[in-house]
Amino acid sequence: MLTMALLALLCASASASAIQARTSSYNGEYGGSGGQRFSHSGNQLDGPITALRIRVNTYFIVGSQHVGPEVPNSDHPTQCLPSFPPYPAPSLQVRYGKVWSDYVGSHLGDLEEIFLHPGESVIQVSGKYKNYLRKLVFVTDKGRYLSFGKDTGTSFNALPLHPNTVLRFISGRAGLFINAIGLHWDVYPSDCRSC
């Protein structure tokens, strides 16, 4: 009799955990293979994404000539890239709650800074890449399209797998520029009083 009761209890707990809704998902990694790994997984504990800072060199023109010293291309060691201009030098910084993450990428280029409205979240990210990110478009649940970079390269479009989830943090690889990006989705944090 005790064995039957324990077996019934075990089956009930296994069924309850099987029905529990999953909420997290991941898209990526989009981009090239160079750069050092980074992750903002710990930053999500500071709150939801509330702002974005992205730097893109405005002189970037595909196939342009350049003047100036060259730096090694981490994706192709036998090739070089111009140091400045015209190659893009995107950098990325994300504010989680009221705390900014560390910069990833270069500090060259023009800074664009976008603040999300209170309670607004990113629900889709698309962009373009070749050996590094060339364009990012963040779409919010308020219908805003926040676009950064140049429209060239291979396209990607990332959405969360589960309903009612939002972009919670990013990861990827970066060096002189953002080589690749990964997107991590989950529910909006319910305990964020100051966001």
UniProtKB/TrEMBL annotation:
| Record keywords | Lectin, Signal
Provide the Jacalin-type lectin domain boundaries.
24-187
Keyword DNA-binding part of the UniProt annotation: no
Q: Which GO terms describe its cellular component?
A: extracellular space
Q: Name one GO molecular function term.
A: carbohydrate binding
Which positions carry the signal peptide feature in this UniProt record? 1-16
Q: Do you know which PANTHER family this protein is assigned to?
A: OS11G0524900 PROTEIN, ZYMOGEN GRANULE MEMBRANE PROTEIN 16
Identify this protein by name. Jacalin-type lectin domain-containing protein
Q: Which organism is it from?
A: Diceros bicornis minor (South-central black rhinoceros)
